[in-house]
Write a structure and sequence with these properties.
Blueprint: H1 4-31, E1 48-52, H2 56-59, H3 63-75, E2 82-89, E3 101-109, E4 115-117, E5 121-124, H4 128-147, H5 150-153, E6 158-160
Length: 161
């Protein structure tokens, strides 16, 4: 049998527990025990450097393209410590459009004595991100295979793919 005083305390106890949970959540986020990692301004990963005649601003990457690049860079973070993208416009046009043909190359620094480089390739602006991501996947596989032979590795400073 439940007393009237116990019934009257139930809403108070439930309310007190709810307030404590909310306060605990606020403290956890304020102290930084749980943080949501987000790149400032939703921009490109700090591991990516763009060089050459075309600036990052001129590329006008979409949020989806930035997200795709960042996912690929994050996926290979243990293999590549820096991604250097070099871009040049073929026809010298001032404004980069989706149909603009560009020359591009990547240097993927490994943090060791060897880096993975691509040969310069041509691509239209709208295919750049897809080719970059594809190249990073291939480069990671090739570098992993290369690392299986430590006696060969010491003789190379750059691995071209």
């Amino acid at each position: 049998m439940v007393c009237k005083s116990q019934k009257a305390r139930r809403p108070f106890v439930v309310g007190a527990i709810t307030v404590l949970i909310v306060l605990l959540g606020i403290v956890v986020f304020k102290v930084g025990l749980l943080t949501v990692t987000q790149i400032p301004g939703g921009g490109l990963s700090g591991l990516v450097c763009v060089r050459g005649a075309v600036s990052l601003e001129e590329l006008r990457l979409t949020k989806a393209e930035i997200s795709t690049i960042n996912r690929s860079v994050d996926k290979h973070r243990g293999t590549f410590t820096q991604v250097i993208l070099t871009l040049d416009v073929k026809d010298g046009s001032e404004r980069v459009k989706s149909s603009t043909e560009m020359a591009w190359s990547l240097i993927l620094e490994t943090g060791g004595d060897c880096e993975v480089r691509s040969w310069t390739r041509k691509v239209k602006r709208d295919g750049l991100v897809k080719q970059m991501v594809s190249y990073m996947e291939k480069a990671a596989r090739e570098y992993s295979d290369f690392k299986k032979f430590p006696d060969v590795e010491q003789n190379f400073k750059a691995l071209y793919i």
